[in-house]
């Protein structure tokens, strides 16, 4: 399986000079996978602007401090109960309001700065009236815990997607795609499979620790996994680095034993080194995290966010493909699972399957 960059054909779908890139603020995944796209656009001579909010905007400002930014309305999504579906339904008015407000902000920004193209990563309101509009998403088909609700949600999602001029799917074309049923839709023709996107590269440095823990995603589930891992780490024999995924955060309010180190955030080079120097990586089963692990050439222990169908579906597919160890949050056992991860060793993405 090969790692691709966006093709020249996909980039030239719109003849552009000024491009506004708008990733969704849902953890750091959408922003991190936009990093290689922004780099490629800059290398191609385009003028890039950034639009987002929260920690996604913080990450991109750290990676590209020289680029102009516009702050977009936040979706402010939180897991309010154990059911992902019910949590999303209860926050639907808030999300729709954010989509309407970000459409207004983006339209004004496009007109003010003569933006030629808007590249939105899963922000359904980020498109301009006069610009060429590209949506990057790996969810053409939505999966919820109820089949009827899944069909309704997919229909609404398709209505929003149809307003864009082009679709970029950060995955390989079928049959070697990672996302499985989530991108298996015949409703759209203007689709480019732009390959696995990661801001990281293969790392061949010396191993320095046993475990790297990468925390991500919306609250309170990010903090919940942090608490589980920290509690199990006290009596663990493994050396460990915990990356909390919180740019500009205050220090954690807990103490750690000497064999465990904790940082709030790592930039691309820091994360690349941290992955490469660790024998086993533990992370949520987020798609961008999976792409980063693939780029660096690391196996890992993936823990889907409970009740989030997308991550559960990814976990099932990766297990069937023989990649990674996928554990539920309830069954996670740090010592036992890390031992299994070490026995599995490392693997790398090469040309071909």
Characteristic terms for this protein:
353 residues, alpha/beta, Rossmann fold, six-stranded parallel sheet, 11 helices, 13 strands, 17% strand, disordered N terminus
Descriptive report:
This protein is α/β, with parallel strands linked by helices and 353 residues long. It has two domains: 8-193, Rossmann fold (3-Layer(aba) Sandwich), CATH 3.40.50.2000; 209-344, Glycogen Phosphorylase B (Rossmann fold, 3-Layer(aba) Sandwich). The chain contains eleven helices and 13 strands. The protein has helices spanning 8-11, 29-43, 54-63, 84-90, 92-113, 147-161, 221-233, 268-276, 287-296, 309-320, 334-344, and strands at 18-23, 47-52, 69-71, 117-121, 132-136, 166-169, 191-193, 209-214, 240-243, 260-263, 278-284, 300-303, 325-326. A seven-stranded parallel β-sheet has the order 3-2-1-4-5-6-7, with helices on both faces. The chain has a six-stranded parallel β-sheet with strand order 10-9-8-11-12-13, sandwiched between helices. α3 links the parallel β2 (47-52) and β3 (69-71). The radius of gyration is 20 Å and the shape is globular. Mean pLDDT is 83; it is low at 1-5 and 347-353.
């Amino acid at each position: 399986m090969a790692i691709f960059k966006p093709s020249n054909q996909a980039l030239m779908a719109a003849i552009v000079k000024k491009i506004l890139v708008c990733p969704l603020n849902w953890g750091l995944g959408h922003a991190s996978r936009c990093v290689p796209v922004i780099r490629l656009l800059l290398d191609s001579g385009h003028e890039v602007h950034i639009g987002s909010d929260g920690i996604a905007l913080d990450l991109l400002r750290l990676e590209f401090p020289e680029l102009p930014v516009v702050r977009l309305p936040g979706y402010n999504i939180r897991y309010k109960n154990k059911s992902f579906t019910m949590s999303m339904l209860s926050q639907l008015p808030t999300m729709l309001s954010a989509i309407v407000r970000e459409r207004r902000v983006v339209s004004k920004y496009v007109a003010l700065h003569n933006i030629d193209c808007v590249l939105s990563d899963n922000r359904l309101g980020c498109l301009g009236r006069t610009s060429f509009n590209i949506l990057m998403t790996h969810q053409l088909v939505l999966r919820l815990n109820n089949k009827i609700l899944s069909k309704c949600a997919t229909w609404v999602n398709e209505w929003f997607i149809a307003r864009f001029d082009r679709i970029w799917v950060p995955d390989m074309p079928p049959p070697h795609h990672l996302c499985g049923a989530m991108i298996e839709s015949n409703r759209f023709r203007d689709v480019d499979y732009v390959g696995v996107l990661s801001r990281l590269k293969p790392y061949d440095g010396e191993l320095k620790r046993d475990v790297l823990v990468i925390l991500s995603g919306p609250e309170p589930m990010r903090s919940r996994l942090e608490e589980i891992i920290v509690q199990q780490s006290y009596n663990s024999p493994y050396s460990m680095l915990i990356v909390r995924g919180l740019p500009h955060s205050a220090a954690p309010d807990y103490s750690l034993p000497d064999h465990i180190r904790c940082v709030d955030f790592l930039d691309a080079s820091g994360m690349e080194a941290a992955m490469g120097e660790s024998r086993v990586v533990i992370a949520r089963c987020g798609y961008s995290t999976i792409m980063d692990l693939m780029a660096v050439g690391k196996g890992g222990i993936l823990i889907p966010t409970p009740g989030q169908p997308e991550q559960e579906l990814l976990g099932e597919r990766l297990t069937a493909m023989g990649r990674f160890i996928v554990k539920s949050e309830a069954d996670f056992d740090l010592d036992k699972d890390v031992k299994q991860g070490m026995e599995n060793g490392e693997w790398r993405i090469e040309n071909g399957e």
